[in-house]
Amino acid sequence: MKVLVAVKRVIDYNVKIRVKADHSDVDLTNVKMAMNPFCEIAVEEAVRLKERGVATEVVAVTIGPKAAQEQLRTALALGADRAVHVETEERVESLAAAKLLAKVVEEEQPQLVILGKQAIDTDNNQTGQMLAALAGLPQGTFASEVAVEGDKLQVTREIDGGLQTVELTLPAIVTTDLRLNEPRYAKLPDIMKAKKKPLDVKSPADLGVEVASKLTLLKVESPAERKGGIKVGSVDELVDKLKNEAKVL
Amino acid sequence: MSVLVLAEHHDGILVGATAHVVAAAKAIGGDVDILVAGENVGAVAEAAAKLDGVAKVRVADHAVYAHQLAEPMGALLAELAGDYSHVLAAASTTGKNVLPRVAALKDVSQISEIVEVVDADTFKRPIYAGNAIATVKSADSLKVITVRSTGFDAVAAGGSAAIEAVDFVADNAQSTFVKQELAESDRPELAAAKVVISGGRGMGSGENFKLLDGIADKLGAAIGASRAAVDAGFVPNDMQVGQTGKIVAPELYIAVGISGAIQHLAGMKDSKVIVAINKDEEAPIFQVADYGLVGDLFEILPELESKL
């Protein structure tokens, strides 16, 4: 079966972000960017399905500026067969991203679409669910285990309080949680080979999707700073401070 | 203006988060209705009817809504949303699973994990692992929103709303429930506890987490963990506090053997008082801790337990 994997270019998760002085957004100039960690897990799962002979073809897709092709090349180096880039310089909210992905799903007709559960920049946790709704497909969100059995998919999901297993009819949408797998690193020869793999570029207009959103970002602020704390010298002092100063015991 | 709140419930019990979501709904204004969907949810509906400020409880009691699978729940909420200007749910795994589906079915944006209501169209929410707060305004006619419970104080019980049945039955041929494995715990729920004590990689093993038990018992605390402790297999993943786990904001948060990566801080830095116990004086956790104690947790924890 064909597997489609969506990846997103985001700020590297180790970077300490800065809010712009005019509060219009977070400052992303000259900041290290990378593939969203949950998307890495999605790519890894697709590649493992291919290695097990379940998937026959893995297609990676991204939406974003020209530079996002770096992340597609990474996906190709990790084992994806080809890539689709929906190129736009505009800010794409989850709903528009889901609409664009739904068009790609319509064109590619994959049996399984794997996305990360959330992107670490906007922290939305929406696109996979929205894509499932728009494509009229079932969803297995926050997956920590995925097993294809004939025309069904068993997904173990991380829920509050424990784990839940659901069975979905294929085609289906899956979003990855952290414990689904441990992503591999790209090897140098694979990085070289990835440069030769096919990469299609489309525009939102090609797909007939309007990217503009009814959601406006009015302001971005730094969170309230915590006051600098103190170091105590002993357990006795700690208990005393908690009882008499902080009054939380 | 009218707001529909999706009730959160498990095992026939209304979950505390719902009372926080009702508080957010009251901040938006207008009539507040609650939807209780599931199988055999009579007791949940009764409990929801008692929440302060609720006008009406709508009950969809049918086998198709058992375990609140996303496909039938999405269809149900999309069907009812026409009567409302806002649809709200807790930013729990249920709310996060269902609400984006509802939004897409209604062709509107979804706003995730709000921590403040500015007005009926404008909301504040954390982005970049809580390192920035975004103010967003929605021009959609229907607002679909998940609410971070730690951002709103729960409403009290004491109301007596009317309860009415919802006839709509979604069909669902796409997904079936197979099984559920829930972690056993008689401690307070992590997200709602007044005191949380968490262990990290520094705990060394799952066995050593028992060192936290005595302190948790004395303080009536919930026990949490960092992702490192979960990944090392010390404790189950539903104990994880952080960007990808639970968000907590207790009165007192005690971090033991936790370095304080930004992903962990995203889950606890709104706690009122933070205590860090770590042998590494340079650990980033000390930058957010109100009280820090540098030392060996294997000596400190037994001493702390004996002195509480």
TrEMBL record, chain A:
Keywords of this entry: Electron transport, Transport
Pfam families (alphabetical): ETF (PF01012)
Keyword Transferase: no
SUPFAM superfamilies recorded: Adenine nucleotide alpha hydrolases-like (SSF52402)
GO biological process, any: carboxylic acid catabolic process
GO molecular function: electron transfer activity
Keyword Electron transport (UniProt): yes
Cofactor annotation: AMP
Domain (Electron transfer flavoprotein alpha/beta-subunit N-terminal) ranges: 23-211
Cited PROSITE patterns: ETF_BETA
Annotated family: Belongs to the ETF beta-subunit/FixA family.
PANTHER family assigned to the protein according to its UniProt record, in alphabetical order: ELECTRON TRANSFER FLAVOPROTEIN BETA-SUBUNIT, ELECTRON TRANSFER FLAVOPROTEIN SUBUNIT BETA
Record protein name field: Electron transfer flavoprotein subunit beta
Native organism taxonomy: Bacteria, Pseudomonadati, Pseudomonadota, Gammaproteobacteria, Oceanospirillales
Automatic annotation (TrEMBL), chain B:
Co-factor requirement: FAD
Similarity remark: Belongs to the ETF alpha-subunit/FixB family.
Binding site for FAD: 201, 226-227, 240-244, 257-264, 278
Single biological process term from Gene Ontology: fatty acid beta-oxidation using acyl-CoA dehydrogenase
PROSITE patterns for this protein: ETF_ALPHA
Complex and partners: Heterodimer of an alpha and a beta subunit.
Signal peptide boundaries: none
Annotated function: The electron transfer flavoprotein serves as a specific electron acceptor for other dehydrogenases. It transfers the electrons to the main respiratory chain via ETF-ubiquinone oxidoreductase (ETF dehydrogenase).
UniProt name for this protein: Electron transfer flavoprotein subunit alpha
Protein keywords: Electron transport, FAD, Flavoprotein, Transport
Span of domain Electron transfer flavoprotein alpha/beta-subunit N-terminal: 3-181
Bound cofactor: record note: Binds 1 FAD per dimer.
InterPro entries: DHS-like_NAD/FAD-binding_dom, ETF_a/b_N, ETF_a/FixB, ETF_alpha_N, ETF_asu_C, ETF_asu_C_CS, Rossmann-like_a/b/a_fold
The keyword Flavoprotein appears for this protein: yes
GO molecular function: electron transfer activity; flavin adenine dinucleotide binding
